[in-house]
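Appendix B, record 7
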Amino acid sequence: MIQTLCVSILLIACQANGMNEELTKSLNSRPPLTIAVVGKPPQVAEKNIQFRQIELGNLKEGKGYHALFIMPEYQKQASEPQFKAIYKKLNYPIFIMGAKKSVDVYMNDDIGYDDLPDSKDGMYAIGFAPFESKEEKQTFGFGLYNDVESKEIIKGTYSLVFQKIYEVLINRSL
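Structure tokens (predicted):
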């Protein structure tokens, strides 16, 4: 039984790793991305991703980025009303990494961080594009492959987020 479980986990990791390598290769052939990060920048497989650490209080100066990542230790602070007002003015997507709450906590002025229970939807990363029309916001969610939390699978999830950033940038330029 334990051997079967170990073999299954190894197969899942190998499948995820094979898919990650193809996606990483594809992403590395694209133009570089510069991503603002509130918190510690993540370790990723892609070579053309530049992270710039910023503080939430400096978001007003957040020009020149392709996206914003808010890391787990800043999630509650990032949901405060003064930051929600700033998000609405940014011209790039925002992603909450290691998400514990619904994206509504960061988009809706009437919902505070403690107003909603922790999310059980399996999303590791959530995001939204604040520059879309007021009637229709674009939101994103990314789970972990087979709900397995390992360094390689988390890197694969970041690759999917980078792919989404490129898609948003392309769609905005049309």
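Remarks on this record: The beta strands are 33-38, 49-53, 67-70, 94-97, 123-129, 138-143. The longest strand covers residues 123-129.
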